[in-house]
Amino acid sequence: MQNNRNNTGDDAAAAAVNPLRDLTQPNLNDSLKQHNGSALKLVQTVAEFAQELGAAMESHSANIRRLVDEFRSRSGEPRLDSSGMRRVWENLLRQVEADAVSHLDFAAVLQQQLSRPTIEASFHRKLQSRKVFTYREAYEQEIAKSEEKLQRARADYKRSYATLLTNEGGNETELKRAYLEAHNAYVLQLRATNAITECYQSHCLPSLLGEIAEVYEELCGLACKCVAGISEAAYERTSEQAKRYQNVAKEAQIVVPSNDLQILARNLSVNATPRKPVRRLFVALSRPEQVPIERATQIPQLRDELVPTGTSTLPLMEDLKREHDSLIQKIGRLQEALDTLIRMQRKSAEGNLYTKVAELQENISMKRFELGVAQLDLAAVQAQKELFGGGEAGQPDGMGGRKMSNGSTGSTKHKWLKAFKSLKTSSPTTSPPADKKNNEIEDGHVWREYTYRKITPCDACGQVLRGHSRQGLRCRGCKVNAHSDCINQIQPVKCPSLAPKKSGGIPLLRRQKTQAPVDEAPPADHRRGSGGSMSGTRPFGQPLMLMTQESPPSTSSSRSPETPTMRRELSVNRKR
């Protein structure tokens, strides 16, 4: 509950900083562009108004009324825009219209200290606004290129699969290799496309929307500053007009640009809901109707992971690591250069060097775009590196055991340290009544959930029992270990500890019983090596685990009865 409150507070804070961050729908781009253009046009209009107002102070009051009417119509329909910037602008027009008396002594103030600086200060924001929407189109083109690559990889994947199915010649090995390589290319491009789209939706696009909000805040500040300057100048020239123009200045100074953006966001998002980045799912190839089932079953069914192609995946992994390191360094350099340019622009703006500010804005926009492209490439490389997280490439469906879990990608020491820390920090909880089934006898064994402190394999399938706690089930009697879905495959079916005890002799333990077939294993191996049906070579696509299951039991299952566990069981049996 506390975490939910924290997340809600973070979202509210982020919305206050950038109210436009959730307006990522493509159909809202035109509305944002129109709103940004309207703000730029309004700032330009306010600056021009101050310029011409200074000249109008030298003429008759009739000219002032005409000027007010002209600029009111030029600024657009006020009912369509209820922002704070619009409100103070309309209030200023009303005050100027009410004040029909010209003031010749502050005409120079209006022209030289208010109008011209406003136009010069808003020029680089106009350039930035144009670049933001241009770079958004460039980002979308990058995503479209990635989509085209994905479609081509998919087409090559289908073509290689169809060629492999219809092949009746003797080059089946090469066709299988081409099929697997096409699969790898398709999976890599699929991950890259998803990562680029997600990075664009979660980082690049919010960054562009943040720039739009930044442009609006700057323009709003310039417009309000110009309005306040005009009002203050008029207030200083006459005591009769002081009260009216001071109220306009106060209203302009309390305008909060983020409030206008929040109102705009609410109006635009009434019929639009925030959309998460679309993730493309791996689509397995289906068997054509004209191909028999027996032929299709000879080809392994692949899934969303890399498969061995007969060549080592180490060069590709090393290339990805080098590219990852290069992108990290490139992003660092771009970020440092961007920070330097922003500092230079801020100092130039403080010194009223607006020509230099406009030149720096061009470089800043370009650096931001290059940084976004580098982050897209980095996201794609990281997504492709995740396919190598388990060490070797994955195996086809039906050819191997369980898929490696996410926690198995790190080193063994690191994994078990994390598991131990999670066990120490977790609070003790009482197991619900439904967990009593762990103690029931099923197929002659008394199973219960067990937390292993060491790496322990399943006695049925041979795979490692994975997880941080309660990795599998363990029999209380014979101490056999198994996955929850492998307990029906445990041999012997009856637990040796529950079997009736014979009157004479010491009964063999489980590991002593499984040691008996080892003596008979060499003749079987000899027969297989002499040309029997069980060949010593591994068939194409078959994992080593299956060959291990078909081979005689390894010496790991026949431990010496002189271990402490065996001695303890022997002593218990003697007492019985």
From TrEMBL:
Composition bias type Low complexity, residue spans: 548-564
MF terms (GO), sorted A to Z: zinc ion binding
Segments forming domain Phorbol-ester/DAG-type: 444-495
Bilayer topology term: Peripheral membrane protein
SUPFAM superfamilies: BAR/IMD domain-like, Cysteine-rich domain
The keyword Cytoplasm is assigned to this record: yes
Localisation per UniProt entry: Cell membrane, Sarcolemma; Cytoplasm
SMART domains: C1 (SM00109)
Keywords, ordered alphabetically: Cell membrane, Cytoplasm, Membrane, Metal-binding, Repeat, SH3 domain, Zinc, Zinc-finger
Compositional bias ranges of the Basic and acidic residues kind: 565-576
Superkingdom of origin organism: Eukaryota
Gly residues composition bias: residue spans: 390-401
GO biological process: positive regulation of protein localization to plasma membrane; skeletal muscle contraction
An annotated GO cellular component: cytoplasm
Signal peptide: none
Renumbered residue ranges of the record's region Disordered: 390-412, 504-576
Record's protein name: Phorbol-ester/DAG-type domain-containing protein
